[in-house]
Each structure stands twice: as C-alpha cells, then as structure tokens.
Specification:
This protein is of the alpha+beta class. Helix content is 41%, strand content 25%. The longest helix is centred in the middle third of the chain and has 48 residues, at 115-162. The structure holds adenosine-5'-triphosphate and magnesium ion.
Length: 357
Amino acid sequence: MSADASFPGFGAFDQLATMVAVATPEGRCLLANATLENMAGVSRRALQRGSVLDWLADPAPLRDALRMVAGNEVMVGRFDALMKRLPLGSAELPVHVIVSQSDFPDHVLVEMIEIEQQTRLDREERVHGLAQANKELVRNLAHEIKNPLGGIRGAAQLLEMELRSPELSEYTQVIIHEADRLQALVDRLLAPHRRPQVVGDVNIHEVCERVRALILAEYPRGLQVERDYDTSIPEFRGDREQLIQAVLNIAHNATHALAERIAAGDAQLVLRTRIARQVTFTKHRYRLALELHIQDNGPGVPEAIRDRMFHPLVSGRDGGSGLGLTLAQTFVQQHQGTIECDSMPGRTDFKILIPLP
Ligand SMILES: Nc1ncnc2c1ncn2[C@@H]1O[C@H](COP(=O)(O)OP(=O)(O)OP(=O)(O)O)[C@@H](O)[C@H]1O
Ligand SMILES: [Mg+2]
C-alpha cells in the first residue's frame, strides 16, 4: 500500500531509508511511510489509527517537540529516544528523532533515524572519502614514478652496451630488473583506470563459476569450493571481466589465508548468492540488490589492518602488494556496489552488494 494521495508527493517518502510520519500537533498519526511500518513491525493502517506518542518509550520529549514546532516556537526539534517495536518483547530501537514543520498547516513531520544506521552511514561515508583520497594519491604517485622509470631503464641498457667487463653488467642487470619490477607494480596501480568499462548483460553465476574453475585449477587438492546459488537472480548490466577480477581477488586472498588448511586438507571456500530486498548502501536505498558472499574458514583478517584493508598498499601477508582489495572495490563501485567484510577466526565473509534492476 502506498502513502496517502491527499498528500501530494508523500509517495516518495516510501523510498526513504529513514522512518517518516506526518502527525497533528497533538500527535495523531496521519501518515506513516514504508520504512516506519517495517521497523515498527506494525501495519501502516494500525499506525495511522494511533498516536505517534505511543511509539516511544518516553513520550514527553516528543509531545514537547510537537507542541513547540507547531506553535512556531522552534523550527526543528531534535532528540534521541527509544522506539517501541512489535511483536511485544522485541528490543526497543535507539533512534534520533527530528520533528519539523511541513508545508501543510497543523501537520508536523516526524522523522526517525536508527542511531546505529546513522553511525554506520557516517562511518561508510568517512571511509569512502578516505579511500577515494588515497586512491587519487596513489594514482598520481604512480604516474610520477612511471615516467622517470622508463628513462632509468633505458639508460641502464645503454650503459650495459658500453661496458667491457661482464662483472659490471651484473649491476646494470639489477637496475633493469628492479625497474621492471617497479614498472609492474605501477601498472597494477594504474590498471583499473586504463581499460574502459565494457558493459553487457551479466549473469552472476557465470562469474562465480569462472572464479571457481580458476581457483580449483590452482588448488586441485585440499580446498573445497562450495556453491550455494539463488538461481532466480536476474541478469544485470555490468562489466563481466571486471566482476570476475573482483571476485577472483577476494577468493585469492581467501586461498592465501587458507594455506595451512589447504595443506591439512580441510580448507573451505563458499560462493553464495542471494537477493536482498530494500537495502541501503552507498547512501541509496535499493528495492533489489544482488548479495554475493565469498566466505572462507581461514584464520580471519589480521586485526591490525581490518579497517584499512581496502586501502591501496595495505597488506597483511608476506609478498602481498596490497592492491587486490583496492582493485576489487574499484570494480564493484563502478557497478554502484559496495563490499563489506565480516571476519573472525574460522569464518571470514566478504559480501559484495550490487543493485539489481
Ligand atoms: N579472506 C581473508 N582472510 C584473511 N585475511 C585476509 C582475507 N582477505 C584479505 N585479507 C588481508 O587483507 C590484506 C589485503 O588484501 P589485498 O588483496 O588488498 O592485498 P594482498 O593480498 O596483500 O596483495 P595483492 O592482492 O595485491 O597481491 C591481505 O594481505 C590479508 O592480510
Ligand atoms: Mg590479495
């Protein structure tokens, strides 16, 4: 059921991730949006028969805010509160309440944001901003390194041709070899921005199957790659190769973390797909999204790098360049998606979320 037609534009409130209601100054609920209905666990019809004052554990601050906003004493009232939920016995939900004037006389807007959600959104935004700044820095730096590198390598080659003694050419070989190594690193740093996106219809299970085949070819023994697919997931527009690379990078990390278990023969990797409904990520609410989990039974992401592991050049293993997750994240972000990670010893779960049509 959509919101009331007597409030033009209120239907759009159903798209919001926050809970919104319209109430009279006395607290009678005139309208409630879909999110409020879901969070409160009460049908919209029941909500609209009652009083918004009944929703909070302590109604006093809301009663005051409604009165003051309706009476033009303040433009906006804000406070934190506990929201009651059904079924009875459900935990009360900590919310931040914002009461403000609406365009209609005697109608007040009551907006409630789950406090945890607010902190999560803040954190996501901060992390995202930092990651963007980091990536830009690394990219610029890579460009700066790339140009002189060609010159260094070329000069070493010329020098080598002039050398009479073979012992000395060992040194020029070191220069050339190290320049090549640096070149390869710089190329990986610049890679995601080099090839334009090739957009087509993507079947996520084709992506998973390809990754599975590649991983199994690399680890024919000691590693079980389980698949748990929801085959009803529709195709979506995207870049297949980019997504294969993203999933492969994450799966590769898992296999690195699983080294001991692979040797012991009980390593496990799970590829799981699901449809998520009404989810919020990257500040948007999506009706449908693809949820792809890449889960392993390894030791977990080292505590020390857990909140930085998506940053470029952050690695927790010997010989790692710290670019795999940065690349994976860039590719997923190019699909308006996001990657989340939940890790503990014995169970690490990377979740890729991508909006579905
Ligand atoms: N499934 C996992 N289990 C445990 N640790 C993980 C897992 N996935 C990632 N990590 C940690 O996160 C770090 C960063 O991963 P990332 O793929 O970005 O870089 P890398 O694997 O070190 O190097 P590269 O992928 O560039 O070769 C890893 O070094 C590892 O310590
Ligand atoms: Mg990696």
